[in-house]
Amino acid sequence: MGHSAHQAQVRSIRESITELGAWISIWRDDVAANLKPTQTSIDHASAVYQRALDRCDALLGKDA
């Protein structure tokens, strides 16, 4: 894998982590306001997490 391809994969993983951080911030605000996170937001964040994990596995050369 070339250096630029590696950098692109790492950037993609970083974007997912940044998005997860934004969801955590939203959930903290919800908790502070005595609100519960919506199932939709949990499902979306779970999908972002799974994509990031899959990218990490691909970067490390794993199949699963």
Describe this structure in words.
This protein has 64 residues and is mainly alpha-helical. It has one domain. It has 2 helices and no strands. It has helices at residues 3-32, 39-60. The longest helix is centred in the first third of the chain and has 30 residues, at 3-32. It is elongated and about 50 Å long. The two termini are 19 Å apart. The model has no long low-confidence stretch (mean pLDDT 87).
Largest sheet: none
Helical coverage, percent range: over 70%
β-strand number: 0
SSE order, as H and E?
HH
Shape, principal axes of CA atoms: elongated
Number of helices: 2
Mean model confidence by pLDDT? 87
Q: What's the Cα radius of gyration?
A: 15 Å
State the distance separating the first and last CA atoms: 19 Å
Strand % is: under 5%
- The structural class is mainly alpha
Oligomeric form of this entry? single chain
Which stretches are poorly predicted, pLDDT < 50 over at least 5 residues? none
Write down the domain tally.
1
Summary keywords:
64 residues; mainly alpha; 2 helices; 0% strand; elongated
What's this entry about, in short?
The protein has 2 helices and no strands.
